[in-house]
Amino acid sequence: MQATAQIAGAIMRTYWKKPVAIKRKPDATLVSEVDLRISNHLCQRIRKNYPSYGLLTEESFNQYLPSERWFIIDVLDCT
């Protein structure tokens, strides 16, 4: 998981001090392209390495699985 977190950090650094596209989610809150890229990266890696775990994320509107173990992801807010 350390490598996964390091890649997420590298994604974030590529946007440092650059304009970022922001859009509204269905609940009218804001989300940036950085938030979505990092969330997608983390979810893909978790699904690959921990397929039986549930995922709860702010950006992907939660993927409920019948699971006793969960990853709860709140990407550093880039909006």
How would you describe what is shown here?
A hairpin with a 5-residue loop joins strand 1 and strand 2. This protein is of the alpha+beta class. It is flat. It has two helices and four strands. The two termini are 25 Å apart. The strands form two sheets. Strands 1-2 form a two-stranded antiparallel ribbon. Strands 3-4 form a two-stranded parallel ribbon.
Question: Largest sheet, order of strands side by side?
Answer: 1-2
Rg calc? 13 Å
H/E series: HEEHEE
Mean pLDDT: 85
Given as residue ranges, the uncertain stretches (5+ residues, pLDDT < 50) are none
Largest sheet: 2 strands, antiparallel
* Structural class assignment: alpha+beta
First-to-last CA distance: 25 Å
Q: How many helices in DSSP terms?
A: 2
Shape: flat
Question: Concise description?
Answer:
This protein has 79 residues and is an alpha+beta fold. The protein has helices at residues 2-14, 33-49, and strands at 22-24, 30-32, 54-57, 70-73. A hairpin with a 5-residue loop joins strand 1 (22-24) and strand 2 (30-32).
Key attributes of the depicted protein:
single chain, 79 residues, alpha+beta, two-stranded antiparallel sheet, 2 helices, 4 strands
Which SSEs are present, and which pair or pack?
Layout: H1 2-14, E1 22-24, E2 30-32, H2 33-49, E3 54-57, E4 70-73
